[in-house]
Amino acid sequence: xxxxxxxxxxxxxxxxxxxxxxxxxxxxxxxxxxxxxxxxxxxxxxxxxxxxxxxxxxxxxxxxxxxxxxxxxxxxxxxxxxxxxxxxxxxxxxxxxxxxxxxxxxxxxxxxxxxxxxxxxxxxxxxxxxxxxxxxxxxxxxxxxxxxxxxxxxxxxxxxxxxxxxxxxxxxxxxxxxxxxxxxxxxxxxxxxxxxxxxxxxxxxxxxxxxxxxxxxxxxxxxxxxxxxxxxxxxxxxxxxxxxxxxxxxxxxxxxxxxxxxxxxxxxxxxxxxxxxxxxxxxxxxxx
Length: 288
Hints:
With 288 residues, the protein is an alpha/beta fold. Helices cover 61% and strands 8% of the residues. The chain has helices at residues 5-12, 18-29, 31-35, 39-45, 50-59, 65-86, 99-120, 123-135, 145-159, 171-178, 197-208, 223-227, 244-266, 268-281; strands at 139-142, 165-168, 186-190, 212-217, 230-233. Strand 1 (139-142), helix 9 (145-159) and strand 2 form a beta-alpha-beta unit. Helix 9 packs parallel to helix 13 (244-266) and helix 10 packs parallel to helix 11 (197-208). The longest helix has 23 residues, at 244-266. The N and C termini lie far apart (53 Å).
């Protein structure tokens, strides 16, 4: 988590104690400002103790407060530079923003979600997932609400290159499909929070059948992540008007495209033939 302190803080939030959450929220709101505070000042500002500050630093991978502040200073400078590129003063969308300001801020947030997801992704985990899908007899994909859109996108992409993939957005259908999987299958569950009961139940059932299980979530310490054989972590930011289900969509679709391209690279000739065949199959559906 020390690679990007702001990402580490966001991903750790659900597992932190209330006193630690206050520190994390302060650092996320003003990383440059907090980096200039003494440990005593920060503890006072957040109505907690210096011991709690040190505990938070160590829980997200730092050896002490000094290195935590150095990382915050670097992250704050990087955030400021990226906002300048997009022409925004700050990242959150405000009711008083003009249409131009709203569009620029949204573009900034979407771009950062894609960039940070790519930066923080565990490539070894991605390779494991791609290898498992490439060899699988069948792939089940689960997701509810907006995560269901990512599940359906992965299904249609992998089906176009010849893989047997089912996307289930209904909880009962997901469970009944997971219950008949075999050990040569793969089950993938999308859940931004990693706490969605439907996704967890389906993945647990698939695991009981011996399938290789994959969790795609924003929180690496979530119940879904702990259950899965492999976890692919997204990085997205919630703001005033962009709650988790909305902010996670671009990051999840980034993961979908990574999986698809990784699988496609394993057998480029067959993939090219499959894509040509599927394109030809719908060619006469286009308006002349």
